[in-house]
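Table 4 source record.
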Amino acid sequence: MTTETLVPVFAALGDATRWSILAALGEGEASASALAGRLPVTRQAIAKHLAMLQEVGLVEPVRVGREVRYRVLGAQLTETAKRLDSIGVEWDRRLTAIKQIAEGL
């Protein structure tokens, strides 16, 4: 996962409404109408937020009869979490080295 792929994901996750939509979809598939019933946002706004989440690979539409439901794509979230974890591990390593140097003085 590169910076070019991470930046749009974080931009999408940086919006409180999209975060709420993603959290709601984490509980199970839902249509834009169902999400609009749960969140204080219009169905049209939900549809725009879902389009952005889909564009960055965090959700995908699934047709169920005449209804389009959305579900979270765990692979992209997992890759994002792994990237963040690797950054955290590197910082922990650096901080441990600084602490050892400081304690040795």
